[in-house]
Write a structure and sequence with these properties.
By secondary structure, this protein is α/β, with parallel strands linked by helices. It has one domain: 2-enoyl-CoA Hydratase, Chain A, domain 1 (Alpha-Beta Complex), CATH 3.90.226.10. The strands form two sheets. A seven-stranded mixed sheet has the order 3-4-5-6-7-8-9, with helices on both faces. Strands 1-2 form a two-stranded antiparallel ribbon. The longest helix has 20 residues.
Length: 282
């Protein structure tokens, strides 16, 4: 796995994202504890299982670059619009300081990574939202990066894959964040009009403005097991309608059963499934 990851030539600042995302600074633990079942398992077992708990099957969040390393062919990764940083259009109190903390914590300048690469020999444009950075919330910069990548896919006539993971709009940017819903949706519409293939892959959690825009516009919609997918969260809905929601409501399994998701894809099958879909449609 190490040689494969190195061959992708990712920036040095995100090396900790490459399978090392859950390790403590300066000291590598032998065991990693699952937040769902509280059981511990060997770090190497977590790595072999793509950071899905070897005991209970709970999916841990993974970084954007690590996810790209799992799907892209060796040596084909090329980042688009690298280095774009968030703006502070409303001069929101302490926003810049929080952004700095997020960058130091994750090594990322923003919550979205956009790139070109090959999946099974087929060149694609891939966009990944990283939930470790401000919960993958959609800022004006995230919207701009997504839009530019979609426009690039339209121009080059390439398949588009978007991995969504978001808590919704970034409140520190107010209306500028909300405007990205229309902006990204318009870019997807132009991509569709040009006959492009768009695979939307929903991961935990995909909520708010991202769900209400580009995440829900795929030609094919895939999801990871157990992912929370929706606009408002279950607690907000229950408090609004004053009713108890069905068990598993808004989870990927429930949405697959009700036709919102086409297929639930385990992380270990992610690359093979994408290759199959691209080959069938190109």
């Amino acid at each position: 796995m190490g040689t494969f990851l190195d061959s992708l030539s990712f920036p040095a600042r995100v090396r900790k994202d490459l399978g090392e995302v859950f390790l403590k600074k300066d000291k590598e633990p032998v065991f990693i504890q699952c937040k769902a079942c509280n059981r511990r398992a060997l770090k190497q077992d977590w790595q072999k299982n793509y950071y899905v708990c070897p005991v209970c099957g709970h999916y841990r969040a993974i970084g954007a670059y690590y996810r790209l390393s799992l799907i892209l062919d060796k040596g084909t990764f090329k980042e688009l619009n690298e280095g774009m940083e968030p703006k502070d259009p409303m001069s929101f109190p302490e926003y810049r300081d929080k952004l700095k903390v997020q960058t130091e914590k994750t090594g990322l300048p923003e919550a979205a990574v956009t790139a070109t690469g090959k999946v099974g020999g087929h060149k694609v444009v891939a966009i990944v939202l990283d939930s470790r950075f401000f919960m993958g919330s959609m800022s004006s910069t995230v919207g701009e990066k997504v839009t530019r990548a979609v426009e690039y896919a339209t121009e080059k006539k390439l398949p588009l894959i978007i991995f969504s993971a978001s808590g919704g709009a970034r409140m520190q940017e107010g209306i500028y964040s909300l405007m990205q819903m229309a902006k990204t949706a318009a870019a997807i519409e132009e991509f569709n009009a040009a006959g492009g293939l768009y695979i939307s892959f929903l991961t935990h959690p995909t909520t708010g403005g991202v769900t209400a825009s580009f995440a829900s516009l795929g030609d094919i919609t895939l999801a990871e097991p157990g992912a929370l997918i929706g606009f408002a969260g279950p607690r907000v809905i229950e408090q609004t309608i004053h009713k108890k929601l069905p068990k598993g409501f808004q989870r990927s399994e429930y949405l697959e059963a009700h036709g919102f998701v086409d297929k639930i894809v385990p992380r270990s099958e992610m690359r093979d499934t994408l290759i199959q879909l691209i080959e069938l449609h190109t």
